[in-house]
Amino acid sequence: MTGDLFADTPDDDGSDSHGSDTHGPDTRPAPPLAVRMRPRSLDEIVGQDHLLGPRSPLRRLIGGSGAASVLLYGPPGTGKTTMASMISQATGGRFEALSALSSGVKEVRAVIDGARRRLAHGQQTVLFIDEVHRFSKTQQDALLDAVENRVVLLVAATTENPSFSVVAPLLSRSLVLQLRSLSDADVREVLTRAVEDPRGLDGAVSLTPEALDHLVAVSGGDARRALTALEASADAADDGDTVDVEDVEAAIDRAAVRYDRDGDQHYDVISAFIKSIRGSDVDAALHYLARMIVAGEDPRFIARRLMIHASEDVGMADPTALQSAVAAAQVVALVGMPEARLALAQATIHLATAPKSGAVISAIGAAMADVSAGRAGAVPPALRDGHYAGAAKMGHGVGYRFPHDDPDGVLAQQYPPDELVGVDYYAPTDHGYEREIGPRVGRLRSIVRGLAARTRSRRA
Question: What is the dihedral angle through the alpha carbons of 417, 423, 429, 434, rounded to the nearest 10 degrees?
Fold first, then answer.
């Protein structure tokens, strides 16, 4: 049931799983590069420094001194399976692996029954479950007693937020450890090591700087994806000794995107993206979004710009635009890439096709300009806090009229300081929803200020 999870470990009878000269030459194909380069010790793990501190629970587990069940949550290719392997080896116990794609309650109970028998003889069982979020509630519930009583030491892996995909009782019985996508520097280290390590390509090829950059870009922080692309590129190299960017493009059928996340392209493309949305060119906006996604741009950066744009350039012309942008940012945080690209695309389409208004940014800009210029007079006495002894003697809160007492819910009353009575900051356009709220804003101002406003309205 372990698959190729521990391809480098001996079989139960002590023989090497890669074959023996006793039976003649081993003609089986070599394991994939990603399997061969799986870290065998803590020192070989790249990234995840936040989980591997000197006294961290994960380090104690991998060191053989911990006994807690864990849920490893993070994107693909960040080391979940590797850490499960190390925990299993550290315990010295029996390893069992189940895949949520092919196992049901029957298989879960069979593993637990076997674990009980081994425990009676002093042997611990480590149960690794990949993609545990695909287990049904019934399947997860079948694990509870065994996990709570440490019949099995559960190591479960998931790419989805366990708060939404794992039942609460199982969560409360486990440590939840979140792995992060590898940084560009981490992926670069993984690739460089694989080229040089005897387990990997053993120096048989070299990478041009451009090829290495392209491999890092297409990895998306996934070490497995990066190593798979490297192996395919090395096989496809025209020059047997050197892998260049053309070899990488040919091997993975993906053109190198000229995009420097820290340079001009980063700023030029995001600028073109926002200006295309502002200009209501949905197709151009999607093009620039695709360029950023393919190049490995941080999706959180894209989501932040969408949220800013929703208020800056759409605003009250379509109040739901901000909701769409915020929802896309939540999908990025809760689901991650590549699936979150759909939410980013949906928000981009929404904002690009929405009616536009710059009234929100103009309104807050004008109000802040007045405050910066010193036009920030005293709060009218009726609006001051009157919820303390002595407030009424100073006139604080005296004369305040409660709008809900009026049948229309709005009444004449001074709200701004004296210096700003009659000043209009918000100027609705006639685009989208602002066509409807524009007249309403006018009526509200007329009622609130009364028929004889003391100062003629002006544009701030």
Answer: 30
State residue 316's pLDDT score: 95
On the question of a common fold for 21-31+48-178 and 184-252, the answer reads no
What SS3 string covers 380-409? Answer: CHHHCCCCCCCCHHHCCCCCCCCHHHCCCC
Percent with pLDDT over 70 in the chain: 87
Whole-angstrom distance, CA of residue 331 vs CA of residue 349:
16
Does the model's pTM come out above 0.70? no
CATH architecture of 264-353: Up-down Bundle (1.20)
- Domain locations along the chain: 21-31+48-178, 184-252, 264-353, 378-459
Amino acid 203 reads G
CATH class of 21-31+48-178: alpha beta
Label residue 25 by pLDDT band (50, 70, 90).
low
Domain 378-459 belongs to what topology?
post-AAA+ oligomerization domain-like (1.10.3710)
- Confidence check: pLDDT of 10 > 50: no
